[in-house]
Fold this protein.
Amino acid sequence: MRHQKAGLHLSRTPAHRKALFSNLVAALFTYERIRTTDAKAKETRRLAERTITWARRLGDVLTKESDKRTPEESARVVHAVRMARRVVRDRIAVVKLFDEIGPRYLSRQGGYTRIVKIGARPGDAAPMSLLELVPDGEPKAEVSAEAGAATKGKPGKAGAKEGGAKAAAGAKAEAAEGKTAGKAKAKSKAKSKSETEE
């Protein structure tokens, strides 16, 4: 049993895995969009969101100039930078995180990234994804109260049932149309046969 062992192994040693995700998060902060496999994208998103939260929690402290901060605010910034450096080893990416990315998401609580599936890789057919930072003006996706009440803790099942019911209804309608069209063709053939015989 894997109790309290979150995260993927990805057939790598712990040091290799840590370096891999550090580099992926740094690339995401630097370029704001990376292309990788689905499994790596999902695990990278987990670390990237946590790291962005360290910067976002500073709030308006980030907007102040460094010489106008109080000693407590400076200590908070240093602590947050050190926590971010535990995940991201690239100094340039950390500077961009606290200068640009953190202030961008001050009004957003979570959901800073999104994963877009882009199909299979040509060489080994691995499922690929784009992991990108959400633009700051884009609203957070909200689940309607009706949809939430319908699922009651089982996300995706209600939608799947609705989709299946709709598909079944569509198939029945097509079958009915096909039968009526077939009967009409048979009648027209019989009519044309009788006309040619006369």
